[in-house]
Amino acid sequence: MTDGGSVDRFVDRHEQVTEDIALVVEDTELPRRLRDEIYENVDARGGVTTEQANEIAQAAESRYLDTRVDPLDPVGTVSAQSIGEPGTQMTMNTFHYAGVAEMDVTQGLPRLIELVDARKTPDTPIMIVHLDEEHATDREKAHEVVWQLEATKVLALGDVSTNVADMRVTVDLNEETLLERWPTYDDATEVAGVVSDIVQDSLGVETVLTGTTIEFGPEEPSYRQLLQLVEQLREIVFKGIEEVSRVVIRKEEVDSGDEEYVLYTEGSAFADALEIEGVDASRTTCNNIHEIHRTLGIEAARETIINETMETLEEQGLDDVNIRHLMLVADIMTNRGTVESIGRHGISGSKESVLARAAFEVTVNHLLDAAIHGEKDDLNGVIENVIVGKPVAIGTGDVDLRMGSAPDTTSADD
Amino acid sequence: MAGQTPKEIGGINFGLMDPETYRDMSATKVITADTYDDDGYPIDMGLMDPRLGVIDPGLECRTCGKHSGSCNGHFGHIELAAPVIHVGFTKLIRRLLRATCRNCGRLALSDEEKAEFEEKLQRTKDLGGDPTDVLKAAVRQARKSSECSYCTSTDPYLGEVPTTQYDIKHEKPTTYYEELEVPQSDLHRRLSSAMEGEEEVVKPEELAEQVNERLRKERDRLDDTMGSRADNPEVETVEAADIQSLMSGEGIRGRTRPDRRDATLLKHIERVLNVGNDERLIDTSLDKLMPSDIRDWFEDIPDEDLEALGIHPQKSRPEWMILTVLPVPPVTTRPSITLDNGQRSEDDLTHKLVDIIRINQRFMENREAGAPQLIIEDLWELLQYHVTTFIDNEISGTPPARHRSGRPLKTLSQRLKGKEGRFRGSLSGKRVNFSARTVISPDPTLSLNEVGVPERVAEEMTQTMNVSERNIDRARQYVRNGPEAHPGANYVKRPDGRRLKVTEKNCEELAEKVEPGWEVNRHLVDGDIVIFNRQPSLHRMSIMAHEVVVMPYKTFRLNTVVCPPYNADFDGDEMNMHALQNEEARAEARVLMRVQEQILSPRFGENIIGAIQDHISGTYLLTHENPEFTETQALDLLRATSVDELPEPDGTNEAGREIWTGRTVFSELLPDDLSLEFTSSTGDTVIIENGQLIEGTIDEDAVGAFGGEVVDTLTKVYSETRARVFINEVASLAMRAIMHFGFSLGIDDESIPPEATEQVDEAIDSAYERVQELISTYEAGDLESLPGRTIDETLEMKIMQTLGKARDSAGEIAEDHFEDDNPAVIMARSGARGSMLNLTQMTGCVGQQAVRGERINRGYEDRTLAHYEADDLSAEAHGFVENSYRSGLTPEEFFFHAMGGREGLVDTAVRTSKSGYLQRRLINALSELEAQYDGTVRDTSGTIVQFEFGEDGTSPVKVSSNEESAIDIGSITDRIVDAEFGSEEEKERFLGRREAPTNLSEYAGPGLDKAGGVGVSDD
Prior knowledge:
A: alpha+beta; 4 domains; B: DNA Excision Repair, Uvrb, Chain A; four-stranded antiparallel sheet; extended
């Protein structure tokens, strides 16, 4: 029920919508988007009478009410089945990531299990880094971002040789690579200086820099230490994000039809990646739910769960699964403000009912703990009531009907 | 049973039980390990004492007086000779020992800390967290302090001091030690060497003096910190002589050897002498805590302290975790079985109880006889072992108790645990009566709502008839027919509750006696509703309600269109049937569960029931080339449908006879006002206008299961009943059509002309050449690697690509040479069965076999089979099958093909178990969620999970998942403004003012096709 005054804005906004039409439409149970759509259609057609508008609204309303979920529908079970059932049709293999032949990404059933388990780190963490306008179209600039992302280790920069006789390690840096990876510098020797400093700091040894060659050795001649130094040297990250082992650059078409460069990374460090200049933080994503949760919050995590599960299903040709089922799963996983797994360590393990928990997994422990804490099972849920043999309070079991005399029929027709 | 009101469980409290309660509820004390005497009667105060309940028929329970079957059994008890630990609580016992004082039992936390943990506990409880986590944190905190802040004890050298706490060592499963401080066994040697020192020798006098000084200082410090400290004048000091006697290995103060009481002294000597870690004078010794010690300790823990730990003090006192009385479960929980030879075989629990009583007895006898401590301890441990395994026989570190045959016993925990355990096996899922299982077979003459039930099953499954004046004649007839003639009855129930079995002999007589008020359990008859199920029940369409059609022979019969929802085929599948036993269940089954109500799948919001396989080939043949039929032929096609009149003919043939086209015949099944336009899977555009198929092929995309456009629209826009009628009729029509044309597939249908074979060979040869080129470039080192890939990987990828293309081009060549009327092609194009890839493999080339997504690389060192040179990279050496299935595979190819095939089998096996578990977890996590009247989704405790289901409250059943919005306002507007309504009725229905009437049965209600009268064509 809307009071007359408030329909003015619809009348104002749409030429063909009279106050009567607006009143008729506003009097329905239709949601805002559908009401607006009626106004737009009435506007587009022109010459719609109030009577016709009423009929349109009525037809739309009856269809709308018809498509709504029925109250007391066990939507949870239906969603669980709708995701679980296609699980039997999925493959177990790891395949190449959609179009990016260079990368292997966990997919199919293992990936779905991983998502539902809310694993701390996925089997193959990746980020899809979108670039801002300045960097997205220019290959050079896109590459600048790549060097900021990809972890640069010594083997990528030059050759390492160990001289056992003199107990010295020599790193012969490749000038071209240096200039490529540190594009802000003009002189390779300067970059070599930077590299040399990093080596000095992280290994704690004196380095000697000649041109682009770095030389160092253990303080006291020791064969073991020498080898250890080389080992450590290999692990030093000179530039980029440690977790990101590889970046693949790809030209992709965007919605507007233009092409732009998109970076796919093997390994993820979402928070760090967003800080990098040139990265479009609004479009960049990552397949680690927890990282998203930490950096962008729980709503973003929910969105990621939906997107990732949907993508996993689509990849397997099961794109017909209704997204509403995935939403429900994502919603229950994020309902308490943290990402919880589906299973005994998450939602099923933190159920209120002792019997429900005991019936799922680790039966005996749940019973013993319940005894210690003096818990009480109020038998509200589904599983408990199945166990004690009462009707479950869901679906038709949630309705009570009592036979009795009919109430007086004053409010019969409204 | 009559008159007994059913009790409803309101809630269940969990807690530990007080030993006193065990004794109170016990029907008898059990002291004898024997079960039955020589006459086979249970022994008094034995494990089968009749007061514990009865299992043998005829005997009377001595506690409640009931007979076996109605007596639930009663607990007894065993008085344990000594307390033993309950294995389930070993971790908690350890935690409590570590967190509380060994002397006063208080929790080693300050009042503030306690309050803090209590608050945390409340919060976890409110948030639904695990209280054990708080308990762990509290224990970790309490464990930090090494002194009790609530009580004191007396030290011989310092007087009154806060009680020192020692570390607790837990040896799994049930042994606990306190790590006490004792003098080293070679104390004299260590002391002497320490006094000699590196440079200077310390004299005993000096040492004594210094130590005394330190002790004095320590006492002063204690005086300061402890406030009121009991005056302890009798504290002892050390003298040079004491040191000397220690150095000679003797004890002090008249003791023969140094002991624990000297720990304080030695500690101070250590400090004075500055002893290194390796030369310490004090050793730690493990002092075993007997269960009785632990029990005493726990008795002292005050209730407030327990509350801070989250332990409910009234419901579960910690000392109750140490058992002094063992409850003996009623006989009914451990029934013995009489074997064929008359021997009794006892339950595992009884065996275990026998062990416990035996050891218990021996323990008591030995103790009374004054046996040495060692023997007592051994027996104690044995008793502990038996009680432990009685509770849980799968404790790591303890050998499981075994049956004589070597099979581990199934004791209490094992009974509850796991899939077949009490919870999952007996409480969450139960065996039921009125169920049947047999093989399924197809029957296209049934409606999809029906199921053919064998007579034998129908005679076993019964429905209860409440006899009244209106049905008494039928009821009597059923009884008269007896239990063996088909629509008969098995039992009758008189109003007084007596149940009488109907037999061949008494049926005539009994039929006369039946009066209103009686109940008759009659056989299943046509039209009854039953539930039908095929495992695995992966979605709700795996369990649907069908109407019974009683049939001869012994299989359940289904219409083939319900195969997709059940995922059933007829290669030996079995299915289950359940006969419903009350009106409420039958009503729900009819309204909600009947097959026609499940046409739409909630997974993707389109129909899951529709034409399959030959139905689709049939409609394809009928509509693709729009063949012509004479009147006889057309009527024959439609004879299994409700259509009995043909429309105006579409023309005449050369012979001048009236003809009807296939599309016209098909259109007869459509409602008159249906208009649709879509693309068929064959690729042409299907146009249906006002119930007439104007053009296009009717195939999978039109009438198939999994989203056939016509079926989907009929279900959503018209009604489930209309859709059911349509599917049934399409199936019948299609079967008639395919029989009319004839449809078969032989090996010659997969053959292609020799020139085509040549072309295929050429294509494959050129692919081989390209592969060879790749290999030579690779070997020359000229191959450029793809970014981020090694050269080897790049080569593999490129070879795979080349060979994949070769297979595709072979397929294309083959496809070009197939006729359009090739049955295999028809099936693939129409979506009936098979794909073009299958055809390619049969006619052209099977293609690359893969294991783990790569070419086959396993086998011998550097080669796959001994037939090839080492490091041969060629296509044929790595599993490329150039032959087709029709031409036959070479032995090598066959082997590679088997490798690929095996991987597929393993994959399927692994996948089913993984996805099964995933499904179970998902169901368990989401099962409580329910849409509410206000549109929100909440769980059963009321927590809101979604404010609007799926963000817009739209049901996934009614809207296809790839549809943006379910409601097309534009088309509604068009229709209303242009006023295209044939009648007022049509308009009313369009506006939604008239709902489709509810149909409850194949035999009743509107839209039926079984009973005469109302046809379908007039809607």
